[in-house]
Known about the structure:
Elements: H1 8-25, H2 32-39, H3 43-48, H4 50-75, H5 80-98, H6 101-104, H7 110-131
Helix pairs in contact: 1-4, 1-7, 4-5, 4-7, 5-7
Amino acid sequence: MREFQINWFAILAGVIIKQVIGAFWYSPALFSPSWCKLTGVSEVEMKASLVKALIPEVIGSALMAFVLVHAVHYAGAHNWAQGAAVGFFNWLGFVAVATLDSVMFQKRPWQFYLIQNGYLLLALALDGRGAGGQP
């Protein structure tokens, strides 16, 4: 594997972007009511577990951003549009396909799949976009 200087700012930005998108995406104004209904988790339960869930979420976001910075670099993306495309294709090839089992085998509704994957698509595309400007 070729070594390159990691853009730690892009990783930090990716973590922040994913957290901000998640806070907005799963807010009562957007998909929180639908997500709670589809999962059987009440808003009270969701809020009660929020702090405990944020620690692994932030760690996972950092890992995702770290890997995406590598994918953007190895894809040769040199601008925001190319970085967003790398994020999109990583989502399509890994996330969208890997989470299909939630609908196919776990019998979750398509609406659940679309809520979860819409969030991850947006996060990866914007994270890739931010990482795309690095050398």
